[in-house]
User: Fold this.
Amino acid sequence: MAGLAELGRKRETRFGLLLITPAVLIIVMLLGYPMGYAIFMSFQQWNDKLGADHRAIGLANYEQLVSDPAVHEAMGLTAYFSVITVVGGVALAISIAILLNRTFRGRTIVRVLLLVPWAVPPVVNGIMWKLIFDGSVGIANTILKSLGIISASVQWLSDPAATMNILVFAETWKLLPFLCLLMLAALQGVPRSLYRAAAIDGADAWNTFWRITLPNIRGPLMFALIVQSMWSLKVFDTIYVLTGGSGGPAGGTTTINFLAYLTNFSNLDRGYGSAMAVGIMILVLVIAVFWILVFGGFNRKRRAADA
Amino acid sequence: MRESWLSRNLRHHLTAWTCGALVIVVMVIFLAPFVWMIAYSVYPSTALQAGVPDLSLTNITLDSYGQLFSDPMFLGPIVNSVIVGLSTTVMCMAAGAACAYAIARFRFRGRQPLLLSMMTVQAIPVIVLAVPLFILLRSVGLYDQLLGLIVTYTAFILPLVIWMLVSFFEEIPPSLERAARIDGCNRLQIMYKIAFPLAAPGMAATAILAFITSWSDFFLAKVLTSNTAVTLPVKTAAFQGLFAMDYTSAATAGVITAIPVLVLTLVAQKWIIRGLTEGAVKG
Amino acid sequence: STTSPQSSAGPLKTGGKPSGQINILDDNTNSVFKDSTIAAFEKQTGIKVASYQQGNFNDLHDKMATMFAAQDASFDVVMTWAGWSAEFGQAGWLQELDKTAVPSDLIQPALDAVSWRGKIYGLPKFVSVQTMFWNKDIYKKNGIDPHVAPANWDEFVKLAKKLTTGSQFGYACDMGNPAGAYQNFLRMLLICGGEMYDADYNPIFAGEAGVEGLTKLVELLQLHRVMDPASLQITNASDLADLFARGTTGIVFNWPFQYAVATAATSKLTKDSLGNGLIPGISVTSASIDGSEGFAINKYSKNKEAALAWLQFVATETVQLQIVEKEGWFPVSKSVLEAPTAVAALPVLTTYKETTRYVTKRYGTPWGNEFDQALSIQIINAMNGKTSPKDALASAQTTAQGLVKKYLKK
Amino acid sequence: MAQIELISVGKVYGKTRRGKAAENTVSDLTYVIESGHFVSLLGPSGCGKTTTLNMIAGLEDVSSGEILIDGRKVDDLEPDKRDLAFVFQDYALYPHMSVYENIAFGLRMRKVPKHEIETRVSDSASRLDIRSVLKSKPKQLSGGQCQRVALARAIARRPAVFLFDEPLSNLDALLRDQTRSELKLLHRELGATSVYVTHDQEEAMTLSDRIVVMSRGRLEQFGTPFEIYHEPATEFVASFVGKPRMNLFTALRTKNGRYTLPGTTFTVDLGEIGLDRVRVGFRPEECELRVVEPGTHGHGVVRSVEPLGNVSDVLITLGDQQFMVRVPGFGTCAPGDRVDIITTRARIHCFDPTTFLRISRGRVS
Amino acid sequence: MAQIELISVGKVYGKTRRGKAAENTVSDLTYVIESGHFVSLLGPSGCGKTTTLNMIAGLEDVSSGEILIDGRKVDDLEPDKRDLAFVFQDYALYPHMSVYENIAFGLRMRKVPKHEIETRVSDSASRLDIRSVLKSKPKQLSGGQCQRVALARAIARRPAVFLFDEPLSNLDALLRDQTRSELKLLHRELGATSVYVTHDQEEAMTLSDRIVVMSRGRLEQFGTPFEIYHEPATEFVASFVGKPRMNLFTALRTKNGRYTLPGTTFTVDLGEIGLDRVRVGFRPEECELRVVEPGTHGHGVVRSVEPLGNVSDVLITLGDQQFMVRVPGFGTCAPGDRVDIITTRARIHCFDPTTFLRISRGRVS
Ligand SMILES: Nc1ncnc2c1ncn2[C@@H]1O[C@H](COP(=O)(O)OP(=O)(O)OP(=O)(O)O)[C@@H](O)[C@H]1O
Ligand SMILES: Nc1ncnc2c1ncn2[C@@H]1O[C@H](COP(=O)(O)OP(=O)(O)OP(=O)(O)O)[C@@H](O)[C@H]1O
Ligand SMILES: [Mg+2]
Ligand SMILES: [Mg+2]
Assistant:
């Protein structure tokens, strides 16, 4: 009797597993296997330019990773890029979201148009900013000159710092809309009555924002920070197109991910390159965990209460 | 006293005006670059590279579009991109919907870790997988084949698809499925007669997102194709080479690459946002 | 698990009558092959060219490296140049050719472009050497005789100064990416009579000649202000060629195809307003850098004999003539260089002939990518005045020593 | 304590939307809420109760007319300057703050000294018996506890006016009854002017000194619960207040002062009111039933009997109308029985069928 | 029509979850629902009503015991094979199908011929007066209409058993009353066995032939509404059924058969029941009040009066307890009045303070 019921549950479980199998299989085969292979490579002395003899060298690649000045340099650039795009980007996104959260005419169309930058493929994004910041024919110079802000053309893409800033700008431009809409959705998830209560309680705009709005969009805020951190650490396409595949000028845009690319594909140092990539992955996870800790976790207590 | 300084009404109006102005500034910043690229694609570059750009309407020409669309070297990648995009989408939706449905409906052990590991996939830098993937695909004869790209993209996009779909499926009231069981549906029928139609808008948005992601990819396509399976972004990026930086063509290719994505995004924006953010809020 | 390709049989010799089919991967520099050469080759040899693919130069390295790493044989013939011949040759991915398979009258720089440390990994398809191009219209406007090339660097600087007015610059170059920075430095090094490496590949470029050369280069930008600042962001020769063709630049040092670009319909210049001559020297009369390209055979190819047949076919006089006449590159063989029809079709060939009297080098090495990357950072910093040329080169040289130690096989 | 005066207050939403002539959400509300009174705004969903409350609180602007609090015009006063507390339907507790912080927040924002805050919070917490949950987050509380916290938050502020927006509607039946009693006691103790929004007439009746009945943004009646119940000013009030609903039907004049429900033998004597048609109403609990002897017709047929424990509702088919009578106990009639409806004990309510206004019975006789 | 028999049915959820000793959600339910009866499952939230219903429907497995329908064990019968229809609390209408398709879906899945489907749909649609919305999607319907569609869907199937899971809880008060009456009529016409889950005792009382009162997964009482109301089997039933709640307190024996509410002068005569302490209950509407003469103490003090229109609830403080009396009209006493509580008309309910079971008054005298 109980056996029959048991059987029913088992049938159910088996059906569930059946549904899950294809997806898991595809993911494991096409991502799991290469992932394992890459980790394997990262423990090898595997430089294609030195021939096809590879040997296991333990953690040597990872040790090099820690001491390599090029990595330090790239990490510095990555930190600069990430901090601005993540913290600045999310902060800006919240501001714009608050702006767009007001009721005004054409709000819907504005929100829709906001998605334009998000939809622009990264490669196109690179080309676009090149057109704009080209030192001799770009519109940026034309506009700035006609406004009298500069007198001679600025060579935006020849100065490492300027190029990095343009990269920051380009990436922010592209990702901001998504973050904005995310924040907008979060803001709309805050019950309006909380604002009313705050108004009655005598909170001014500043207090309302810090004490009511912000704590109440914590979850989405954390998601935005995690996602944006992942993207920022892994930025590639825009750098590639914007700098002609070089990460230049003078390595000024060679972030850690781009360095991994150069090491893997330019220098053909697969072992070291894999170690670098694995390092990035760990870094990404660490940062995700960092944000989770900052925000007090996925709040197990609340979950338990919900269940 | 603050309230005597300006009347409440006037203050509200002032705020509204300031915010309106800010919105306009923001929108200009968000839209202008893309508009400028469109301009680049329809004006001869000489008109734009002059000291003061000559934007008279008579200058507009669609020559560069004509040129690209009559170039077999460019048409091929377009067709490839369309095929890859559509097939990836179909595969993602087929495998993803089944998986997401199971995760949303059947309580089995390891359900939560499975979902979390789906998100972890997002942390993997593609670079790390490129070489092993290449070796893998070549060994099964899928290098530079559309099918190779399709399965690779499917694997990369599936986690995102599942992540989104789970939140859509979880939203379907269980009572509907119970009603269907009493009405005589078996499990499969419940899925395709009740769950899928109900999640249709969400599924459409997810599908569009899958399409966009595969359509926009550059790096994998660059590594996993050489000629027959080259996709549009790779071709577009190639417009700046050692001996061929043609700004007009690059801009045109850029616009062509971006347009389908733009259109799809605008169509499904509401659902895309919902799908992504709901996943987010559920964390 | 896999057998090392180097352990297979020795250098490839011509032999038998090759047949079957081959696949070719080329860059998009030449169009003559797909237009006519392939048909001619198939007709003459009976070998079928199953596919001829052209890739963007910037993308080719990664693509080929990935392909080789996976021991892929989908291409029998691949395009090569000095850097890749060294890099892929040393990696054991390119098939070494026997001396007997190499045509006898090849120009030495052309052969250098497909060789590494005495081993020949392919045959050249064309020669490319930089010469000086100038805009006669601008010369005239600024009251300079447009027919005489500057005899030395000081004259060149003087000229460039005169040509620099407002948004018009006397000189421009392309040092926006690592390869470009390397080339521009190498050119300066050579005209100062310097060398990159000694016979044992010890880097010596940070010596007097190098410092002088880099100093002079920095001066063009910072002191004389004759160099278009855009030079630092131009990432390829094509953009430089376009810039020159827009008619606001006095002088460029560029590859032969500049001639075609400058005399094209969209250009501000014409045949008559384009000046061409030797690059002015500093310690030597003149010198230039080499950018010759060739074809090599994939080590994993299943049909190397047929591939070799293609390599040899491209080096023949008929094909080379076409390349000169239709595309404006220099020929790989001395006999074509002398051919009157060639000079008639390509006036700059005269300058090239002169160039052959002076040093033209490229120093392709297996560590080229890493080195270019490291050097370019120092050069750009020097150009932007952040470090002195001396320190910059010293630092780059230290890096280079490490790279040589790592990559130079004893 | 404060007196609140509404002078032909009106509200139009969405004035700015492209030229669409926006309708008045609320219009021409005029009444005075006396200091210390407990006044309910009663009306069906969407009639503008919340809108009115928001205007009093300053959370919405007034479109026309004006609101005076203690004789002072408050149009230009921000909500926090009006010295009132608001208890929201969904409680609007700040989910990220502990109960203590929730209660203290309004005081902090007003820069009340710290020790004073502590006293006030603990005072209001003990008053509502939530001292034990002061450290919890709202998520961990039950609905009833949330409700108390919301009340404590309002009380701690010691405002002149309390505004309640359906504060009980999210509680279950038992808790609702309990909290209602507590609310009444609380008001008695604090004595602050209270405005209470509800769509539940029972709530309004039990709690209020005065009731404002609204419908579609208009004032239907302003009066004491007794007036509202026994002398409804309009047909709407008559039908809205009272459970089970008042039986209302259109009667036609047959002879002087006698009116009949068409198609039945059921008649009422209204005296001379000068109308051919009139809307007549009887409260179900004021009518009685008598099963007629077999063979006679009676007024109607019992359709169903619903026992409620101490009383039963009997539904009678009267011509093409339904008539409800509430009888004591489990009742004595069964479906199918023919019955007479006896209205001698019942108060007769008459309304003009066109204006829907009450016809004063004073005029009748 | 079918008879449903539950034989010590139990349900444990989450047996499979890592070793946690799962509690019984429902245990040892035994009763018989007669063919054609309308039976309500009544109990507070979370007491296992839905679980029981789901087990009858086959949507959940039975953990122990068994369920027979018409004498046949149904444990391994899929829900659709049990010949029953389910009306869900949230209606569970398929939002992507039109009303017509919603009603027809179950018939289609059962391969009923097309013309037969048409007749049945239009038949049940006209019975519930929703013919005009057959083409609409559920989204376009009001709550009441959705409710009718859900009913129509169940009716069209012509099942032997109807299962209702709080079908009225999402409707507003007015609509709820209306639909309740209709449901009653419908059951009378169709005559199918119906099991009805609710936590609203009024609903259960008005609708049912028999009521199953549950609490914490256990059966408290199975009986007719009259029995449930007048002879509650347990203290839980006594306090749960009846509104306002029964006044319940612990009384101590003073002398033979006389029991007192400690700290008051309020006493009752229970006869000899052999217990020192006993739980005693009075229904508020069965008690009366008398204001005592000035100077005398009386039983207690009036704390508040809540007028409900036809009756008023008077809350009295009786020692440290509250006592509620429902008086007719707007009442005659005011807060602060000292009153006596007169229970002569009232039925006295007694419960054992340890087992909470009813002490039969039969045993008393
Ligand atoms: N911000 C707004 N913009 C436009 N219309 C609104 C707004 N707020 C309310 N309304 C409209 O005003 C009318 C009255 O709304 P209000 O919230 O005051 O009703 P209510 O009586 O409180 O109803 P409920 O009992 O459902 O809360 C409704 O028709 C509503 O749609
Ligand atoms: N699928 C499930 N898994 C585990 N526990 C469950 C499940 N469904 C219900 N329960 C638990 O069983 C108990 C009884 O639930 P049930 O839904 O039967 O209550 P109910 O009487 O219908 O209450 P309500 O009136 O709130 O609907 C609850 O404590 C609930 O938490
Ligand atoms: Mg409201
Ligand atoms: Mg339930």
